[in-house]
Amino acid sequence: MPTIDRLDAEILRLLTDDARAGVAEMAERLSVSRNTIQLRMSRLVDQGILKGFRPVIDLAAIGMPVQALVSVELDQRLLGPIVHGLAQLPEVIEVKIQAGREDILVHVAISSLEALQVLTASIVAIDGVRKTNSTFSVATPVPFRVQPLLHKLTEDTGWGRSTPAPASEAPRSRSRSRGRTT
What we know:
CATH architecture of the largest domain: Orthogonal Bundle
Number of strands: 4
Structural class: alpha+beta
Strand order of the largest sheet: 2-3-1-4
Mean pLDDT: 88
Shape: elongated
Strand content: 15-25%
CATH class of the largest domain: Mainly Alpha
Number of helices: 6
Order of helices and strands: HHHEHEEHEH
């Protein structure tokens, strides 16, 4: 199983803050070589940890101010065709298979409550869907994030096999030395 250390977590933090950050800029901000950043990013991609670089889109700004989570109960024998049918609906922005009362959780973005009613009817019309239940999002006080989790996972690691984190990043019990790593 791939693992990451504190330097990997910091690279991912910089990319999360600005996916357009360049290798040289990240190397300067983290006090490591450009080669180190490039090698680490390549490894993160090769190991499937870093899946890509995506823009964050304000759905309300593009005319889709209402978001809802639609729980779907279904005939599980038809899971594949149902997921395919959901993927054909442009307002569906994410589908998650669940363990629990409902089988699928569908995240949708729509222009109005009336549009949600029409969309829900389209979902129910998919063969094998038994019923739906919708919950509206009224605010997102904690948006999708992974940085606190990455920090927790790597808080006791250095910036490579032989190099501790810089003094500003090292836990109090660790050495405060700085160094370059590859």
